[in-house]
Predict the structure.
Amino acid sequence: MKVLIIGSGAREHALAWAAAKSERVDIVFVSPGNGGTALMGGKVRNVPLKATAMNELLAFAGDNNVDLTIVGSEQPLELGIVDLFRGAGRQVVGPTQAAARLESSKVFSKEFMQRHGIPTAGYHVFRDALSANTHIELSTTIYPQVIKASGLCAGKGVFIALDKKQALTVNNALFEDRIFGDAADEVVIEDFLQGQEASVFALTDGTRYRLFLPAQDHKRIGNGDTGKNTGGMGAYAPAPLVTPEVLQKVEERIIQPTLKGMRDEGYPYTGFLYVGLMIDQGEPSVVEYNARLGDPETQVVLPLLKSDFMVALQASVDGTLGEVPFEMYRKTAATVVIASGGYPDHYETGREIAIADEVAEMEDCLVFHAGTACDGGRLTTAGGRVFSVTALGDTLRESIDRAYRAVEKIGFDGAYYRTDIGAKAL
Ligand code: AMP
Ligand code: GLY
């Protein structure tokens, strides 16, 4: 079987790694991939097409007899790549454009949750500065309030306003300065949820679903969850916060009604469903949905999957997801992201990378690349998040220590990483 993976991050490197492990798979194309997927060799090869070059990707899949395409990132989903591939008779893992609105439109997702009684923060929707500002001036809401651009903003479109003044400043930036352009034509203002965050990932054929182990991301740049929001600086799984009781509530109150609601409204949800949760005293509510796997969460949940990933993906496309194994290792995993100095703001690229030879020999350790480029065997930095270094262990402590031992052996000018990944779960 030939597989095409669309995207270029550490998530896609992990997807390629999991796909290549499958005995069913002969070739794994990654488009555009990164330095890590370029260096994998064996079944894996990069294709120089951007994730949003949909027609070229479809032509590539046709010319190369690709059997199954996996969409890693959100932009092609929002653009309707799944509809395009399916329309051309090609098998693809991901939601249609209409279903991907769970991520690409926060207004859609909030209104959907309200229609189906799915627990989430109370909210209001605004389409111009005047009504948003009037709401802020006149309402007696309790601060903080969370202000979100409705459209895709690469994780940067969420602001936590501590008082009225900050809220008005954010409205101004979104509606008047248009810092996110059309993505903030609609704005959601919602109540601040107390609690702790965790994410649950489902693979679904629209009706049946299978769950990966719950994970916890570290979204802030600094130790102790301080500083700016990033794409994610590290993760671990399973997250002890998601007890079996909490998980049962997540399934009954969130995942099942979400899939049923999407079916009932005429756009069944297929592919990966990412449920970002806030858990307060054992009660989960939805912070956000994403229409794909998380990055860096994928780098911990996929290595913990014992069953053949490709068998499960094929079953999700065939509608036989209930009939295949989906078992997990009884281990824990941690991943530490190494970023370019300055990320998530301005950073330099093109820095030479040195990885000690012994890292390749380290047991239960996987170095997933994100922003790297490989040119004639020379590895350089090419993005904000550069690596996601994963390790497995019998305990979380062991996974974390092992991951950091590998991280210390990877170097480039300005390399930065958090030193407290997983600490809050110990
Ligand atoms: P989102 O892109 O919607 O996941 O928001 C990004 C981050 O902002 C989340 O991971 C939370 O840390 C925070 N956040 C978003 N909405 C809320 C909320 N209603 N209450 C508290 N924190 C929130
Ligand atoms: N780690 C957060 C995300 O993938 O959206």
